[in-house]
């Protein structure tokens, strides 16, 4: 009886050790694939399709890590192995944290319309001049898509509106330039009424073009803005958020 019990204990011990190592390995693979997809594409080591495959496989690896950890946790509870329980809980929590950003992006993608060119003035959008050649060389069109996009934008992002400020035009232009520089965007051109710049996303390094237009009015200056992606059918709400954030910060800067 004693020999049989010892044999079962050794088998359980080997199983918990194996599961612990496999769950940790799956977590490491998932983290490498998910975290490395964006930088690898940004540094031109892989194509965009490969980067998305990296992310997809990373999610599969993370799912495997959770499954192995749940099994490890159950075995450790029955065999009263506290160390194995700690490993299992750590992997489950770490995997949940790892998947949070992709899950958040997926949620945003489900809610966002399939558009990539956002502006505060859909009737007379600010036109790219200095960045026109760069946009013509990119997959997405340089000109504003038109009424269909405007309708989708108005339904999805009703808060994308111009701001009105009671300050001299030169003061507003200087403040807008300062905010562009604070945002880390690369300025392409500045005129008396416009600023054109390129914003680069942190993870994948996607380039989105921005133009800020100032229009003098009797009681101040109206600030319009347009933000358009060079690549991709959907921006997952990035351009709308960029405009809202920029104009909000600009308004505070001018207070």
Beta percentage is: 15-25%
The main pleated sheet reads as: 6 strands, antiparallel
Overall pLDDT score: 89
- SSE class: alpha+beta
- Name the CATH class of the largest domain: Alpha Beta
Number of strands: 6
Outline the secondary-structure elements.
Layout: H1 2-42, H2 48-79, H3 82-111, E1 117-119, H4 132-136, H5 147-156, E2 163-165, H6 169-183, E3 186-190, E4 194-200, E5 207-217, E6 220-229, H7 238-254
Antiparallel strand pairs: 1-6, 2-6, 3-4, 4-5, 5-6
Quick synopsis:
The protein has 255 residues and is α+β, with helices and mostly antiparallel strands.
Task: Provide a descriptive summary of the structure in words.
The structure is a single chain. The chain is α+β, with helices and mostly antiparallel strands. It has two domains: 110 residues; 138 residues, TATA-Binding Protein (2-Layer Sandwich). Strands 1, 2, 3, 4, 5 and 6 form a six-stranded antiparallel β-sheet that branches. Helix 1 packs antiparallel against helix 2 and helix 6 packs across helix 7. The longest helix has 41 residues. It is elongated, with a radius of gyration of 26 Å.
Tags for this model:
255 residues; 7 helices; 6 strands; alpha+beta; disordered N terminus
């Amino acid at each position: 009886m004693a020999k049989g019990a010892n044999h079962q204990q050794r088998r359980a011990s080997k199983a918990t050790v194996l599961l612990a190592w496999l769950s940790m390995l799956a977590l490491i693979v998932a983290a490498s694939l998910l975290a490395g997809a964006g930088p690898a594409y940004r540094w031109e080591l892989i194509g965009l399709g490969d980067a998305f495959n990296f992310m997809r496989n990373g999610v599969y690896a993370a799912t495997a890590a959770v499954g192995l950890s749940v099994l490890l946790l159950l075995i450790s509870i029955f065999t009263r192995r506290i160390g194995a329980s700690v490993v299992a809980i750590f992997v489950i929590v770490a995997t949940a944290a790892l998947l949070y950003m992709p899950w958040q992006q997926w949620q945003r993608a489900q809610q966002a319309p399939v558009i990539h060119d956002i502006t505060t003035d859909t009737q007379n959008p600010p036109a790219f001049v200095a960045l026109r050649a760069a946009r013509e060389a990119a997959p997405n069109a340089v000109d504003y898509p038109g009424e269909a996009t405007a309708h989708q934008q108005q339904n999805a992002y009703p808060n994308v509106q111009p701001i009105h400020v009671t300050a001299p035009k030169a003061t507003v232009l200087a403040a807008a330039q300062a905010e562009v520089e604070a945002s880390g965007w690369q300025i392409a051109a500045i005129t008396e009424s416009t600023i054109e710049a390129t914003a680069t996303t942190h993870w994948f390094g996607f380039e989105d073009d921005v133009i800020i237009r100032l229009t003098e009015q009797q009681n101040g200056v109206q600030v319009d803005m347009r933000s358009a992606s060079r690549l991709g059918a959907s921006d997952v709400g990035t351009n709308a958020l960029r405009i809202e954030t920029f104009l909000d910060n600009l308004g505070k800067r001018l207070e």
